[in-house]
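EI: anyone free to look at a 77-residue chain?
SC: sure, send it
EI:
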Amino acid sequence: MKNVLRKQLFSLTLDDLRARERELRETIFKFRLQQQSGRLDKPSMLRTLRRHIARIRTIMNEKIKGTNNSVNVALLK
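SC: here you go
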């Protein structure tokens, strides 16, 4: 499953990866609000989403370093 997800993510462009990361961060924010109010059904989803973000960031770094080593790391943010 993880390898399939990785292949799918690697086929996306950097802009698509940034957009996907932003969506996941917004989802984590919503889940944290639910957690604070005691309405979060699956607390394990927070960990899963954080891991997805880490995968996306890793692939973004690989793409940047693979295409142009002189690219500034600030482009990731």
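EI: The radius of gyration is 14 Å.
SC: 👍
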